[in-house]
Amino acid sequence: MKTITFLTRYVCIAMEALDQLLMACHCQSINLFVESFLKMVAKLLESEKPNLQILGTNSFVKFANIEEDTPSYHRSYDFFVSRFSEMCHSSHEDLEIKTKIRMSGIKGLQGVVRKTVNDELQANIWDPQHMDKIVPSLLFNLQHVEEAESRSPSPLQAPEKEKENPAELAERCLRELLGRAAFGNIKNAIKPVLIHLDNHSLWEPKVFAIRCFKIIMYSIQPQHSHLVIQQLLSHLDANSRSAATVRAGIVEVLSEAAVIAATGSVGPTVLEMFNTLLRQLRLSIDYVLTGSYDGAISLGTKIIKEHEERMFQEAVIKTIGSFASTLPTYQRSEVILFIMSKVPLPSLHHPMETGRTGENRNRLTQIMLLKSLLQVSTGFQSNNMMSALPSNFLDRLLSTALMEDAEIRLFVLEILISFIDRHGNRHKFSTISTLNDISVLKLKVDKCSRQDTIFMKKHSQQLYRHIYLSCKEETNIHKHYEALYGLLALISIELANEEVVVDLIRLVLAVQDVAQVNEENLPVYNRCALYALGAAYLNLISQLTTVPAFCQHIHEVIETRKKEAPYMLPEDVFVERPRLTHNLDGVVIELLFRQSKISEVLGGSGYNADRLCVPYIPQLTDEDRLSKRKSIGETISLQVEVESRNSPEKEERVPAEEITYETLKKAIVDSVAVEEQERERRRQVVEKFQKAPFEEIAAHCGARASLLQSKLNQIFEITIRPPPSPSGTITAAYGQPQNHSIPVYEMKFPDLCVY
After folding, report:
1. 221-233 per-residue burial string, b: 16 or more CB within 10 A, e: under 16
2. pLDDT higher than 90, residue 248
3. Cβ contacts of residue 707 below 8 Å, gap of 6+?
């Protein structure tokens, strides 16, 4: 035993001498000595004695800190990478010795990296064969928190224990390694991290995985961030058939990494990231519908857990929102258009799947994508509504508002509110009420800009129409009416001028007529809700316009309702247990907001009284034909309406009218009335084809077909009939003169034609 101890001392003395010789060597002659030195270090590392391994590691670290001017072409560090990595995984029985060996292994790897990473002539430390050893060794020590750390050391020993913590040393080494990585080496450094997390099932707790990638994202150069994102996206695709918990962990890590990367440079991976996430959403929906990852259940097939897939879908949607919130406005707009283009719609250009499974898949896909769109649009700020809601996006978004599914319609309303609310007023309208003084809401109101005015001139009728149709839905619940109230209020605050205010009042009065006439056979709750919605909005807009007579009329009707019909006010309708009436027929005029009275009081304050007097009738568009709720009769009626407009019977020759100043003035004044008459005529045509018996519709269509055929026959007769013969005509049967074609060589020409 004493002999071994003496030998160990001799080894220590010899290595100390080698170290001093190494430090004393000049840079030009160090290569002559290094080979012998590294052989001695390798012998020590191969020893089974921990103290000799630690001694060899310390000597190697001293050597690694020496800067060499002359490169070495034949020096290899493969053995040292392997041996230091093995020491990082030490499982010695003694806890203190195990910690020292692991610390030495980490220091040795750090020395190898420092010695080789900046020298292109040395062995390439970024090769996969080296990275597959170095990175997992560092992650292993990051992952395993030593039992010694759980002890409570004395105050004097605390700093020493901190220095001897393998996890902290491994983290510093990993940060240094990644900080030195060039563009082409990022992939080789990240791939071992992903494999390590897979092999040790570290995605499911996801705490360690998130910690690792935070270290990575903060250590690499900012311009390399998108490479890490690409690696994570590829890994998510590779694990598309893994358990939902694993995929959810990858998505959570991706979320954290993407937010950090957005502060640097994400580059071209923005749409790629969203495309991958949306693809994973669609796959998850398929897994839920089929019940397996292979599309069919058979022996050996992994059966999915639906609640885990739901959690994964929510994680994806959350990631989409968190990443989009960090993007600049122009990129966020591109993402919004990209997501909307993926929503399946019942249009001619976007065919939807049929069958029960196809309908479920379409519905779930629509809901998930609209949820994602809502996450992206939340907090979206744009000074120009024309760029925030371009025509192609708004058309697709509003077409989903015509669908039967109540949840989808609610998402559309919430998305519109997110775009329009630019001053944070949305939460102030979360409760529908008739406040006597809206100043308590502390609304932030700005004057409508020129761009917003242009937007409303172009799209206002489209918005009004969808609000009107949404109010008529039988499946509406409390949340729908809250969203409708919020949308009306925000349009009034953000986008309103005098013309918009007039149209919104007409719209709400038309909604009141829907509740009163009840052609849609709405339940009592829906009718009371429409009355209450109109009262709340008119109370708000009257105080915003500050016209005393208008405010007085609205206040009088509300007070009358409080006394005689509280079930027509929001305070009794939009509560947990609505207090309704059993009969809404025969509502007296004192309980209604009168269009004639509102036109009179607002007309005296400079508003367009003529326009206020005209009832609102929604425009009909091709969206009715694309909506799932529309019947075949309505589709035919639109086609017949077009025919009736272009029919020759409708053509009347009107004598030319002299254009004067009075003529132009009359045309401008009457343009609104003519437009409303045209809409009324369209409504009557649609109503006729909805309610008329089938025999009457068939007879009408048959008559139109006969008329068309007769006109075609006349055209064909004119175009096909030969020219008249110079020889004259002959009389056919029934006394009808008939022209006969005579060959040219038999024709008799006048003498003047011959010369």
Report:
1. eeebbbbbbbbbb
2. yes
3. 647, 649
